[in-house]
Design brief:
Layout (H helix, E strand, L loop, with lengths): L25 E10 L12 E8 L7 E5 L15 E5 L6 E8 L11 E9 H5 L6 E4 L5 E8 L5 E10 L12 E8 L5 E6 L14 E4 H5 L6 E8 L7 E9 H4 L8 E3 L3 H6 L8 E11 L3 H6 L3 E9 L23 H13 L7 E7 L1 E3 L4 E3 L2 E2 L8 E3 H15 L1 E2 L6 H13 L5 E9 L6 H11 L4 E7 L19 E2 L2 E2 L5 E5 L11 H12 L3 H11 L22
Parallel strand pairs: 17-18, 17-24, 24-25, 25-28
Antiparallel strand pairs: 1-4, 1-8, 2-3, 2-5, 5-6, 7-8, 9-12, 9-16, 10-11, 10-13, 13-14, 15-16, 18-21, 18-22, 19-20, 19-23, 26-27
Helix pairs in contact: 6-7, 6-10, 8-9
């Protein structure tokens, strides 16, 4: 029932295959910052967030690549979160950076105040001789864009630092310190790559362990310079520099000791006072480094991916017989539900050899007694939810629209727990489960859903939620752990397993191509699955099969705190 073998790369008899026909391509990382943004807030400064859109050759519209974090109260933001994009020399890849004052809880850019935009090509950025490209922003200010090729290094570094006798920056004689790590690029400028948490009211902080890929920290180059700045956090965004120091990964890997005890120097204080010594010390408590296997290492090693879809049959979708319904079936045209099923399913099905997928419904009344169910099988079977391939799922879905009565409420917990039961029974590192929930409404069982997700976060599974229609899905964001850790009843999720996407972000553009919308949706909703799978495997100590993943995890330096 759960059998699957990855077939890619196998050749059955005959002459060996030639090299794959593949265009030269690199993955690049874009770092953005801005200066002198327009201030849209009356009583404070703007809270900027940048969204990157891409228009590729042959397409007539932009689609979203990703978003930075929001920075509170800043007209000169230096965003930490990067954009990763495939760079193709032979294509003109046009980019648009939209900057917003992100003041509301809505996920929709159109609900925010615009701070302007910048358009340029990826080639223009990468051809800028390794230095930052600066572009004027339409509403005022300047955007700085740095492009760097992503290192193929799989090394991951875990470090623990403490501060000793830091300068007092606050009125009551304490500071609220945090660290920012910077990587030196080829143009000898420093780009921010990691920010720690803020520790309140202390001059001797001990930060949580920092876990960062070496490709992020130093582009995989152990001798590349790393700059560390220590700041005192201020609520108005005007953080005060306590001091800075410089190091590299080779030095850090020597472990704790005099070599990795750093004086934090404040350049302004040093210039003003001849007696100035330092503003405290930054001390390395411990460091480890290991080679982390990739998603493909696990897939090629035999890990099986199992896909389940759950469809919303609540009455808020509208009568399926009317064109206004989200379930309305027009010959030859996908509705939003079938579009989402195809987009995600057609990608995942390639990783399942038997192509048998469970398909569930929730929020509907099912025959013959018209009982309300939040966990019924779309194929009408009382005991077998499996459908043959994506076409089988679609046929079962279309059939259900003729036999199931739309009702409500919108409850997620039953279908999450359904998949969690299978994941609970298959925790051997050979199986991973993906649940796709497609819904048009606000969740009615938020507490139960949170509980189910927190409990499932320790299982080999991920949950993708696609919102269809025009509902306000802002409340759904609390389930997606990108910016905060999900919790219920005082218990925190072990890891982020939820990815939420609004389908309308990929619809309604001039191209009107459902196929193109399908491609964009798949890219968006599946982006976090590889990271989530590797995260679970790593947490539970599973390595890919030795024949594929060369060598065990190596520790370069392990020093107890």
């Amino acid at each position: 029932m759960f059998s699957r073998r990855m077939q890619a790369g196998m050749h059955q008899g005959g002459a060996p295959p030639g090299p794959p026909l593949m265009a030269p391509m690199s993955k690049v990382e874009l770092t953005v910052s801005a200066k002198n943004l327009r201030d849209r807030d009356a009583l404070s400064k703007s809270d900027p967030l940048c969204i990157l859109y891409l228009k590729e050759t042959g397409h007539d519209r932009f689609f979203e690549i990703g978003r930075t974090e929001m920075i509170k109260d800043s007209l000169n933001p230096q965003w930490i979160r990067k954009f990763e994009i495939d760079y193709r020399f032979e294509e003109r890849q046009l980019l648009r950076f939209n900057i917003y004052d992100w003041d509301t809880k809505s996920t929709k850019p159109e609900d925010q105040d615009s701070l302007g935009s910048v358009e340029c090509s990826l080639g223009e950025i990468m051809g800028h001789q390794g230095s930052q490209l600066s572009k004027p922003i339409t509403s005022g200010g300047t955007l700085f864009i740095q492009g760097d090729e992503v290192s193929s290094s799989k090394e991951v570094v875990t470090m623990n630092f403490k501060g000793v006798d830091l300068d007092k920056k606050d009125f009551l004689g304490k500071s609220d310190p945090f660290l920012i790590f910077y990587r030196c690029n080829d143009a000898s400028t420093y780009l921010p790559v990691h920010k720690t948490e803020v520790i309140k009211k202390t001059l001797n902080p001990i930060w949580k362990p920092i876990i960062v890929p070496a490709r992020t920290l130093c582009a995989g180059d152990h001798n590349r310079s790393i700059k560390i700045e220590c700041y005192d956090w201020d609520s108005d965004g005007g953080h005060d520099l306590i001091g800075e120091c410089y190091t590299n990964l080779q030095r850090l890997l020597e472990g704790p000791g005099n070599t990795n005890s750093y004086e934090l120097i404040n350049p302004k204080k040093k210039a003003k006072k001849s007696s100035y010594k330092d503003s405290g010390k930054l001390v390395l408590n411990s460091i480890t480094s290991h080679v982390e296997p990739s998603f493909l290492d696990y897939i090629r090693g035999g890990t099986q991916i199992h896909f389940t879809v759950a469809v919303d049959f609540t009455a808020s979708n509208g009568d399926p017989r009317t064109p206004a319904s989200l379930h309305y079936l027009q010959p030859g045209v996908d509705n939003q539900y079938s579009l989402a099923i195809k987009a995600v399913g057609e990608i995942i099905q390639d990783y399942d050899s038997d192509k048998m997928f469970p398909a569930l419904g929730f929020g509907g009344r099912i025959p013959p007694n018209w009982t309300l169910s939040h966990e019924f099988f779309l194929n009408g079977s009382p005991d077998n939810p499996y459908c043959q391939g994506i076409e089988g799922i679609l046929q079962a879905y279309f059939r259900s629209l003729e036999t199931v009565g739309l009702y409500g409420p919108t409850n997620f917990a039953p279908v999450i727990n359904h998949v969690a039961r299978f994941a609970q029974s298959h925790q051997d590192g050979n199986n991973y489960f993906i649940l796709l929930i497609i819904t048009d409404g606000v969740i009615c069982d938020i507490p139960d859903t949170k509980k189910a997700l927190v409990e499932a976060s320790n299982l080999p599974m991920s949950v993708i939620i696609v919102g269809v229609g025009n509902e306000d899905f802002s409340a759904m964001e609390q389930l997606d752990g990108d910016d905060h850790r999900l919790s219920f009843g005082g218990k925190y999720a072990e890891r982020d397993i939820v990815q939420f996407v609004e389908l309308r972000r990929h619809l309604g553009h001039k191209s009107g191509s459902h196929h193109y919308s399908q491609v964009l949706l798949a890219k968006d909703v599946l982006a976090e699955i590889p990271v989530q799978l590797v995260s679970w495997m790593k947490t539970h100590g599973y390595l890919p099969k030795a024949a594929v993943f060369q060598g065990p995890i190596n520790t370069h330096a392990v020093v107890p705190q």
